[in-house]
Amino acid sequence: MKLMKHIIVIAAFFISALSFAQESGHVIGHLLDLESNNAPLLYGSVLIKENGQKVLTDENGLFKFENLAEGTYTLISSFTGYETKETTVEITANKSTNITLNLNASTISLDDLMLAIASTETESTSSNN
């Protein structure tokens, strides 16, 4: 009788573990430069807003989030010198969701740059006095 209880407990554990594993989905994607013929953005950042998970893209611009609960997530993609972008993605249990994230290069005007330099120079001279 005791052996039967142990077998039932072990079987229940494996069944629950299998059902938990089947409840998750994955996101696989690429982070690309929209203005550069979709060149991959190496070591760019992709963050899931809802849970704080963050990954860097590889040398092909590829990123992956695994074992995500079914639901809607907001991906925040960024790369130095590019505009940050938020993209909503729907995760389905037992499926991989493929997505391509395209970023635009950010622009900075010469006036903004000169203002930033002048501001830095002013702070530097005032701290030296």
TrEMBL record:
It comes from Algibacter mikhailovii. SUPFAM superfamilies: Carboxypeptidase regulatory domain-like. Keywords: Signal. Gene3D superfamilies: Carboxypeptidase-like, regulatory domain. This is Carboxypeptidase-like regulatory domain-containing protein. Residues 1-21 form the signal peptide. Transmembrane segments: none annotated. The keyword Signal applies.
